[in-house]
């Protein structure tokens, strides 16, 4: 399968989730401004909506919308969804909230020129982060187990940090906990967003002094 992505965009949550599920995939970068893929294709011919992510399955079926893609990946690896009789419903409930309430609250940061609108967006995001904080139970959104919803929230916490939205100590702790997962580090490295420290031997230590 192939995930169309842009570095650091919401598609990063699909990449993290694919790695968590141990699913092999290709990744094709999209320039979301010019709507051109890294191989020079017109992305709007692949996804007429023009945005990432898009997951194209090996049989040619294409899954669009981040929530559907994450739900699909959780369907391939049940450990990435909450358990219990209402597990699937709870996952869709959380992904819907993340997409329609939190994700959209960031839009003015990209699409608005005005300082007042960006300040209002910062408040809107901060108030939603305060709401979601109550769901962080034990380690992650659904308790001790990481799910695809955590991958999505992590991406938006990166944006919140980049745009200077205030975050509570509990939220920062959660953010750092997710950032430390090997799959998350791998995904960040692959998208050119994280440079791990070189493994230190005596010569490299000398080079650092
Ligand atoms: N409704 C879509 C929205 C996806 C979305 O907003 N993607 C952003 C990156 S996070 C994008 O590609 N923006 C470029 C554009 O809209 O032209 C989804 O949930 O998948």
From TrEMBL:
It comes from the Bacteria. The keyword Disulfide bond does not apply. It holds the Pfam family GST_N_2. InterPro entries: Glutathione-S-Trfase_C-like, Glutathione-S-Trfase_C_sf, Glutathione_S-Trfase, Glutathione_S-Trfase_N, GST_C, Thioredoxin-like_sf. Residues 1-81 form the GST N-terminal domain. One of its GO terms (molecular function) is glutathione transferase activity. CDD domains: GST_C_Beta, GST_N_Beta. Keywords: Transferase. Coiled coil: none annotated. It is an enzyme of class 2 (transferase). Residues 84-197 form the GST C-terminal domain. Its EC number is 2.5.1.18. This is Glutathione S-transferase. It comes from Sphingomonas kyeonggiensis.
């Amino acid at each position: 399968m192939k995930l169309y992505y842009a570095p650091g965009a919401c598609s990063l949550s699909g990449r993290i989730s694919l790695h968590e599920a141990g699913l092999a995939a290709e990744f094709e970068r999209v320039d979301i401004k010019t709507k051109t893929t890294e191989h020079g294709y017109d992305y709007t011919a692949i996804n007429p909506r023009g945005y990432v992510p898009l997951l194209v399955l090996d049989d040619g079926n294409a899954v669009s919308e981040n929530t559907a893609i994450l739900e699909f990946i959780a369907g391939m690896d049940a450990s990435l969804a909450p358990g219990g009789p209402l597990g699937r419903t709870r996952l869709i409930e959380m992904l819907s909230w993340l997409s329609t309430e939190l994700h959209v609250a960031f839009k003015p940061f990209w699409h608005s020129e005005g300082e007042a609108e960006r300040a209002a967006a910062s408040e809107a995001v901060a108030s939603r982060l305060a709401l979601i904080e109550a769901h962080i139970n034990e380690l992650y959104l659904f308790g001790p187990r990481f799910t695809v919803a955590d991958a999505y929230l992590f991406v938006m916490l990166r944006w919140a940090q980049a745009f200077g939205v205030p975050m509570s100590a509990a939220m920062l702790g959660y953010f750092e906990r997710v950032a430390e997962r090997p799959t998350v580090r791998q995904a960040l490295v692959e998208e050119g967003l994280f440079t791990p420290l070189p493994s230190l031997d005596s010569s490299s230590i000398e080079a650092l002094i």
